[in-house]
Amino acid sequence: MISLKSARGRKALSSLVGHRLLLTFDFDGTLAAIAPHPDAVSFDPNIEHLLTRLDEYASIAIVTGRSREDLLRFFHSPPRTIIGNHGAEGTSEHAALQHARATCTAWRLSLDSLLETESPDGRAWLEDKTYSLTIHCRVPILLRRIQSLLEQPLPLPQIRVVSGKASINLLPAGMPTKADAVRSLLRRLRCDRVLYVGDDVTDEDVFSIGDTRIIGVHVGKNSTSKADFFLSSQKEVPWLLKKLFTLLVSRKSSLTKRLLRGERQQISLPSSRGSKATRTRASSKKKSRQSGIRRTRPVGARR
Ligand SMILES: [Mg+2]
Predict the structure, then answer these.
(1) What is the dihedral of CA 60, 62, 67, 72, to 10 degrees?
(2) How many angstroms separate the CA atoms of 253 and 14, rounded?
(3) CA of 33 to the centre of ligand 1 (A)
(4) What does the pLDDT look like over 100-117, one tens digit per residue?
(5) What CATH number is given for 2-90+177-251 in this structure?
(6) pTM of the entire structure?
(7) pLDDT for position 299
(8) Dist. CA 87 → ligand 1 center (Å)
């Protein structure tokens, strides 16, 4: 895993310029620092401002574990593309979402009962995001015990159990993952390069795609991640956004300069040598003078 701030990392960023680019970000731990409670997360308005500026040069998408509705409350001017529930919301058909909702409802009853037994003091609690569920717990030993219980065979609809940071995610089986979401966005937005930035276990689905068009960046150094590059911490994400902005703006201004230079050359050509039509008329007059033929003006023509 290589630092994105290294020469190779910077070169990889520069290689994105000039392509139809999709910039994709996870939210918690990536665009916003992790907080003890999902509701306590604070989102820096400067990051929203940078995303808005980048939107002029690339397609911007957020692919989050939160529900879309929950994420929207952090933005004054949200990006055009938001994929919620770890890839499922914003990519799935209505029937698939209804199936996911029914699966979560069935699991919720069992989980309420499990958490009441294992954590009567509320240190572990359940977040229902309609199309997926998350158990939050900041006591590692208790979280591990709950995860081991969830991995036992249970007479419930199939679900995928994925560890998170101080959390366990329960994702209805068969629903699109973050990797499916990125593949779908590549087609839908007609992009040919992707920068994907995330810090979650579910982001590894994207880092593992193995498509040369996708550059993966893990927030935080993690030797087990399949991402190509890493940023040391969430605090370095603004550096990345500014760097992308500088690269994309300088590309646009260099294109504008080339375009203007081309226009100037086109404009200056007639004044120095004359246009083809002007040269043809001049040559015809010269020939007429030499041959003694005088062109007569048609009757009634105005001078
Ligand atoms: Mg995250």
Answers:
(1) -50
(2) 15
(3) 9
(4) 999 999 999 999 999 999
(5) 3.40.50.1000
(6) 0.82
(7) 42
(8) 13
